[in-house]
Amino acid sequence: MPRTDMAVVMGFPTLLPPLPEQRRLVDLLSRAEGIVRLRREAQKKTAELIPALFLEMFGDPATNPKEWELSRLGDEIVGFEGGHSPKAGEEGASPFRILKLSAVTGGVFKEVENKPAPKDYIPSYVQLVKVGDVLITRSNTSGLVGSVAIVRSVQDGILLSDLIWRIIFPDHCRINIEYVWALFQTKAILSSISKLAIGTSDSMKKLSKGRFKELIVPIPPEHLQRKFATKISNIESIQSQQITALAQAKAAFDALLDRIFHQEAA
């Protein structure tokens, strides 16, 4: 029977496995933790591909080095649709849930960021969030107002709030949604949007539909936008695989940790 030593951990006597076994366990945990770290780093590097790809294909909107045509946003879209923000209801009282600002900030749609609608609340069809929607925050801090996210998937009953707009594009639009989404992540456009927003402090700025339509945006050729959209789709496929791989690596690490401590406790 292998020898164990007694140690005091947080004031309690604890049995320790033999030193060689301790080293083996530490090595296993170190390797598992390393896999998790590598998965996170790979995920971060993949996320950096999109802004780099945008600058490579279209250039910095601040200087427009490729001399694309410039246009008012209001001349390229139909307009905006928004929702309402009634007082939150009780959990489970309504089948509808209203998006919070945090559902859009960060450039990735997070439908879990929502609050319950009041009991018996009846929304209009316009309020319902649908797959393919391009959402934008019309109010936030100066650095976050104008955040945009594309709805790739959404459950039934998710609603727009009064602080989140849906951008309405015409049937034959010169700008596609992936281009708009990436364009609105650039520092130049975010800075322009912040300047268009009004408010008494940086803690909460608001955009009006009229002012936002005055935003000047570059319009690259449509075939380049389509090529960009295809590459975005490929990158997002890789990101989806990496999210799954990271979850699996974390689960394996946690399982190993749990097995080790349960084994030692036994």
Helices and strands, with pairings:
Layout: E1 5-9, E2 12-16, H1 19-58, E3 69-72, E4 79-82, E5 97-99, E6 114-116, E7 134-137, E8 139-140, E9 148-150, E10 158-159, E11 164-168, H2 177-183, H3 187-196, E12 205-206, H4 209-212, E13 216-219, H5 222-265
Parallel strand pairs: 5-10
Antiparallel strand pairs: 1-2, 3-13, 4-11, 5-6, 7-9, 7-11, 8-12
Question: How does this structure look, described?
Answer:
- The protein is 39% helix and 17% strand.
- By secondary structure, the chain is an alpha+beta fold.
- It has two domains: 1-68 and 220-266, Helix Hairpins (Orthogonal Bundle), CATH 1.10.287; 73-173 and 184-216, Adenine-n6-DNA-methyltransferase TaqI, Chain A, domain 2, CATH 3.90.220.20.
- The strands form five sheets. The chain has a four-stranded antiparallel beta sheet with strand order 4-11-7-9, covered by helices on one side. The chain has a three-stranded mixed beta sheet with strand order 6-5-10, with no helix packed on it.
- A hairpin with a 2-residue loop joins strand 1 and strand 2.
- Helix 1 (19-58) runs antiparallel to helix 5.
- The relative contact order is 0.17.
- Mean pLDDT is 83; it is low at 1-13.
Structural domain tally: 2
Percent helix: 25-40%
Helix/strand-derived class?
Answer: alpha+beta
Which strand-content bin applies to the residues?
A: 15-25%
Spatial separation of the terminal alpha carbons:
14 Å
The pLDDT mean sits at: 83
Radius of gyration: 25 Å
Named CATH architecture of the largest domain: Alpha-Beta Complex
Element order, helices and strands? EEHEEEEEEEEEHHEHEH
Strand order of the largest sheet: 4-11-7-9
- Uncertain parts: 1-13
